[in-house]
Structure formats: C-alpha cells, structure tokens
Amino acid sequence: MFIQASCILEFTCELPTPSIFMLRPKSGLSQFVLREDFQITPYLAMTEFSDTYGNLCQRLVMPAGKVKLQSSIVAACADTIDVDFTAGWTPIVDLPDPILHFLLPSRYCESDKLSEEAKAITIGCNHGYEQVETIRRWIYTHFQYQYGVTDSRSSTLDVMATKTGVCRDFTHVGISLCRALDIPARMVTGYLLGLKPMDLHAWFEAYVGGRWYSFDATQAEPKGNRISMAYGRDAADVAFVTHFGNAELSRMTVDVKETSPSWL
Length: 264
Prior knowledge:
Helices cover 17% and strands 39% of the residues. By secondary structure, the protein is an alpha+beta fold. The chain has 2 domains: 2-78 and 240-258, Immunoglobulin-like (Sandwich); 92-221, C8orf32 fold, CATH 3.10.620.30. The strands form 4 sheets. The chain has a 4-stranded antiparallel sheet with strand order 3-6-1-14, with no helix packed on it. Strands 4-5-2-13 form a 4-stranded antiparallel sheet, with no helix packed on it. Strands 11-10-9-12 form a 4-stranded antiparallel sheet. Helix 2 (129-142) runs antiparallel to helix 4 and helix 3 packs across helix 4.
C-alpha cells in the first residue's frame, strides 16, 4: 500500500536554539520511500548526519522567534507485519555484535529490575516470539492509554506502577520486559495508518529467530502500513526533536493516509 504521511511543527524560541530533528525515514525491508519533502520557514542552513543506529538526523540552529517545519513522505509500505510463533530465542553467543547493546538496561528501560515480573508474565511460554507476544498482549490488556499522566521523565518503573501512559510508555515497558528475559529489544518511532488519535507513534521490535519482529502494545492485533523513522534503545535515542535550549512547541499536526501516486 502507498502511504502519505505529513507532520507540521511550529516552535517559538526566545533565543537561538541548537536542535536535532529525526523526521526523515530511510527505505528498508518493509518500506520504500518514493518521495519526500522537508521544509523549514524561515529557511535555515542545516547539516545531516547518521547517528550510531543509522538514523538520519537534521542539525540546525533555530533563531529567536517562530519557526515552522513541514515534513511530507510518500512510501510503499508492507500491508502486514510478520508474525512467527515458531521463531525461537536466539542464544547470546549467536547474536551479532551490533545487537548486544539492545540487551542492556537504558535510560528509560530498567530491565535489570524486572526479571521476576517478566518471568511471571511469560510463564509456560515457549522461549522467543511467544514470550514477546505474551508481553505485548499483557501490556495491551492491563494498561490504560491516557494522555497527561506521564512526561519526558517517566521510565518503565513509573509506568509499571500506574499502568497508564501513551505509546512511548507502553513501548518502554515492552522493551524492558523483553530485555529482562535476555531478548534484545529496541524502540521504533514513525507513523501508523489509522492510528486513533492520530499522532507520531512508537512501538518496539524484538530480536528472535535471528531477526527483528515488530510488536505494538497499543493495538489489539498486528497491523502493517507503518513508516519507520528512527530506531534506538529508548526514547532518549529516537526523539523527533532534541533542543539544546528553550523552544516551545506551539503546534503539531500529523496526518497519515492511503494514497495513489500520480506518477505511477
């Protein structure tokens, strides 16, 4: 399916503010970027680099006053995400070197403190994909999606205590419980067709059966038609914008829809 996704962000800065954005996706196994438009008003010089995880990052200094950023993408996306309950746990000795750090605790994912909870949730499960899907289903069943109860400081332990939050929080819990079982897990940010309410979205991937599989604890069932923008250990690695100073987000509009490119 062809998906068109767009995001409009407006900021107000008191002083010039160095910033890093992650709003440009790359083509991959489940998506191919056909067209992209990235604009900023007023026009600002910027540079682009790839971070440790291969994400495209846009680096600039926003001037004092108002700044508007518009990002639009058209991509061919997979209609489904892969599901394989036979995908087993990958022994640590067989993990590729770049995967190993996705086993470790991180800023928002205190996996080293959740071993007993992870074992209790997945008791009786086959090791691997079935464990991860059981974790995903447990979060979907036991947690309440609610804005305003968490913020940028909330970690997995905070969310586990209240069992409320948003996609970012659900994702951190899923990642932490997987890592507690020695299953590598990482955070993904991007767009999801049909998301309600529409917003930038987050989900997680787990490395089982020798590859990455997608899991979304905010959805009742597996859904495709996603555009992935960034990958990392947790929200600290994949924020759509990081400011080094004070910048107020005054407007954010996200739109995701099916499209039929006129040039095809």
